[in-house]
Amino acid sequence: MERPQNSVVRTPPNSTAVQRRSKSKSYRQSYRSCLGAASRLGLTPGLTARRLNSSRRALKSHIITEKVNPDHLALLVKREWRLSYITPLHQFRHTQLKRYSRQLSAFIAAEKQQGVAMEVEGSQSGFRVSFSVVQGLAATDDDAETVLIQPQIFSRPVFAKQDEPQKSVWSGWLTCINGNPEYLQSLPKGFTSLPLFGGSGAEVLTSLVKSWFQQTFDCCFGPLEINHTSLQWLAALWTNCHTESNLQHLKMIWTLPVVPPLQITYTVNPQDAWELWMSVRKDRLEKTEDEEEAGSIDIEEVMRFVQGLKSHFYRHFRLDLSAGNLNQVSTALGSAKFSGKIKISNSRYMITTLTLLTECALLKMPV
Amino acid sequence: MSLLKPFSKLPGLNTANILLVENEEQFQQSLADVLVEETSVTVTVRLAKTLPLPMENDESRPRIDLVVFIMNLSSELSFQSAEASLKYLDPGYFLGKVCFMVTNARNASVPTERLDAVRKLAASLHCPLLFAEDQTPDGATSATERLLTVLKVAAGLVPTTTALYLSNLTRCTLPPDIEQPSFD
């Protein structure tokens, strides 16, 4: 099994040890032993954690249209993004975006023209790249670097009229939302960490953009799968928002390893899912009066929610879904696939969803 | 409850009996094929899907020296059924006569929490945790070699070494950071 390598720069172990002891006290309330083995999740003393959060703040509907340009938002939602992780970028400046966009357009044009001896048509491959910063999505004050950047590649068709809007053939973004503050502060000077990258459009262009980034900023890209636990988190977090915005359905796709492979689409009525979720959270909400505590969700509640769904399925079809894999979760608020594709349909919950994905990216990163 | 007891029967001469418990019933077959080829000791391999074992062959069953639980990490059901079977073992087995074997641990689709849960289970029971590769015949061969080492000690065929002593050396330990809280 692969473990993340500890890089050369480390936070001094003494201070982190002291920090962790005080942190562990706040988690004791949610400690519950499950199946004879403790269910707490932990962090390696390296720079990146090995496990996801065991408890998470509930999704709050952030009205982020005030802070964020609604055009940018409109571009982010309702598109399916393929995710990958990026290692920290060297010498990336937010002030140099114009220069980067020119360089990237030139790079893409050059790559496209490789192999063509003469320039046949004048501006046929009119790729124009624009980088822009999406202000307002930075979640914490600690990481001043948590900003979204968006290159969009437009292509001008050969016989376009002057006023025809340019069609965007590719777009992508890099982001870091609620990243681990210890990790971000321990990066050496000159490095910016934007661990999550999403791209949608032609695969050729995605690989061109990635290679440009690799050459310019000395970083590495890698595919990011949304693993089984994160998909369960997303299912629970989206169900939690049912009162505020209608889910319309909770659809899960499981694959069972039989011959031939069986794919099961399990659609749950949102009201029933909501009632099941509430019954799981009922004990938790009754015990704590504090508003803060009621806002956070534990991994055990998520597990129990999914276990409830699985046992209901078993009672009707005699098929135990634990033997299979959860491949896709989708609701009206968005859909997430195991292969790393995500679509957020509602801009209200973007921050929390992106937080979860940022954590996944930071976990998967080898540095 | 029909517990499987470790010392209720007499041992055979130069024999070792191993019980492979696996929910999917696949890897145990290939392991068994390689195990019986051992020549220095007479190895008897019993296969089971879960415990408890059926009462009917209780008389004819020899004394089981080593119980191996094989878990496929890509399915949660595998882990759950192995855990449920643990209840049917007499506590005497946990003094070095139980071993956990895990396959498919390098698969990217396996959530890390599952492997952690297996580790915690093995560590709490003081049992060794072995990783095996089930897709190639080489994987079965190397897993068999390691199992035979433990089996020979558990059957008492190695002088000056007992199962309890070996289990002290080979038992699964947890990394010290496994209980640390994670991101805030």
UniProtKB/TrEMBL annotation, chain A:
Presence of keyword RNA-binding: no
Any matching Pfam family: CENP-L
Biased composition (Polar residues): 1-18
Primary subcellular site in the record, as a coarse category: nucleus
Location in the cell: Chromosome, Centromere; Nucleus
Top-rank taxon: Eukaryota
Coiled coil feature spans: none
Keywords of the record: Centromere, Chromosome, Nucleus
GO cellular component terms listed in the entry, alphabetical order: chromosome, centromeric region; nucleus
InterPro entries: CENP-L (IPR025204)
Disordered: annotated span: 1-26
Nucleus keyword on record: yes
UniProt record similarity statement: Belongs to the CENP-L/IML3 family.
Protein's recorded name: Centromere protein L
Automatic annotation (TrEMBL), chain B:
Gene source species: Amphiprion percula (Orange clownfish)
GO CC terms: chromosome, centromeric region; nucleus
Name assigned to this protein: Centromere protein M
Keyword Nucleus applies: yes
Entry keyword Glycosyltransferase: no
Location in the cell: Chromosome, Centromere; Nucleus
Keyword annotations of the record: Centromere, Chromosome, Nucleus
